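Q: Two folds, back to back.
A: First:
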Amino acid sequence: MNKVLLFLLLIPSAALAQSPFDGTWTVDSKAWLPEKLEVYLLADGVFRGTGWIGDGEIKADGQDRKVVKTDYYDTVSVRILDAHRVEIIAKKVGKPMFTEVDTISPDGNTLTQELKDTTESQPVRMETSFRRTEKAPSGSHALSGSWQAYQTKRSNNGTTITYRCTAEGFSAITPLGEGFDAKFDGKDYPVGDDPAHTMVSVKRISPSAVEITSKRNGRIVGVVHLSAAPDAKSIHVVSEHKERNTTSTYEMQKQP
């Protein structure tokens, strides 16, 4: 017993203290809520709009069409299901990565967007509700117009993440197996189970603040600032999306 006590006394206090980041966290639904308006025009068999095809246009004939290549898909198909529903499928090398069904309410004022993300080992589902901010032009499909997101929900397998922080590094893992284990040395480390082959580097700002920088093909695509609350029950997140030039803030709550 005396040997055990002596051993514990020799361990630095910082090594014995648990980091406020350690544990499993639930992401606030606001993290997935689009900040910018979604703008679409579907008329004369052609789909135009933001999102999957950027600022371009493709035929709405259900065929896979090449779009500006991204890290997660290289073709998109648009199919009109009926007067109030449209299906959009994004693929990478022929594999479906995202399947979206847009449904417009009978009065034309609400859009429900159901998305299935198949980029990981299990599908992640998300449903987002939008309010119309601009009417559809005469003769166009009901999806046409501008939409503002106001509510979203995501399947449980896509809303939790487990963190572990030590004096040497920081790690993260999701229930689907996507994650990383990086050291505080400025080097880039791979994100496992990520088809886009993202690399991350981590920086410890303080015992309760960490910065995570994500890169793809050597370019910075995102910077996330994590700040743990003094009671270690929540984390304030500031996420900078470099490709979209937007910044979102939200909270994460610690699971019991």
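A: Second:
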Amino acid sequence: MKSRSIIDILHWILGMFFNFAIVIVVGIAVYFITIRGFEFGETLAADFTASGDDYEFPFILDQDTPASEVARELEYMGVISNRFLFNLELFLMGGVRTYEAGTYTLNRSMSYREIRRTLGGGVAQGQAQEEEIRIPEGWTIKDMADYFEYRGFFTAEEFIYVATYGHFSFSFLMNLPQDRPNGLKGYLFPDTYRIPANPSPGDIISRMLRQFDRVFDAELRDQAYEMGLTIDEVVVMASIIERETRLASERQMVSGVIHNRMAINMNLDMCSTVAYVLDVPRDRLLLSDLQIDSPFNTYMHSGLPIGPISNPGEAAIRAVLDPVDHDYLFFVLYDFETGQHFFARTWDEHDAADQRARARQ
């Protein structure tokens, strides 16, 4: 009886070994069939695609970039048809996982393999024409649009339209409110970029979104989750901080005020959210301005505004996630030259500081 059990166990082990061997053989066969299929597809595609100088274009990587992000950019630009197949082929056939920063000359008739070889060679084509743009922290989409029109890239209206209605495949954009009136605002990351000499709005926007994805990394997302905040809530709060103070030393203080008010369900009463909806900016708001019925007006509506009011930089984002622990609920501009604010715990302290500031002005 016992020997019978041992035989059954040996049969089971042999059966498992045989099945495992079959899986390995099938896997190897699929691998080689897939490779042959890719090679055939590349050859067939080359026969039906145009080539020549007219189809060449500069492809610029601002910094060393993971292959998955490069694939997403290539798909958006129409150079490859499917980034998932591109990444699958990279996995099966081997290749670098990060491409070096630089300007590369690509051709729209290139096969996936040729693209990988060009980008993976590590030698950028420095002679390709390019432009440099610098986007300051706190700019709105309109600020950017006016700047790009001034640079002669395209009209302000073109940029605003694409930034409002364009579709870009980034995970952090998937859950944004569909009725948001300001499109991608908050996610067009301010930085210095190298772009093609004749860029389209999409060229610039995709670079900004890709940079946002780099900066708002897994570590920051974990911090936001631990604080009970979504990525969008962090961006909205950071956009307010960016507009409320121009002093680096005050960002975390302002963040603390916002967190303190939200913790007790107190209206944020942020002047920057009202100034955002004004047609003509003012140094000081009027009492009538505070009555403007807008989902951005945090004097009229509780909680965060419906969306970001500017495009915040990394420092403002980090300030949201690392506020100073204090008990202040108010702050008022105290020094108009330096931009310094006075922080107060009570309305009486705040009002007294405001009167002193007005007298100084």
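Q: And?
A: The chain has a mean pLDDT of 82.
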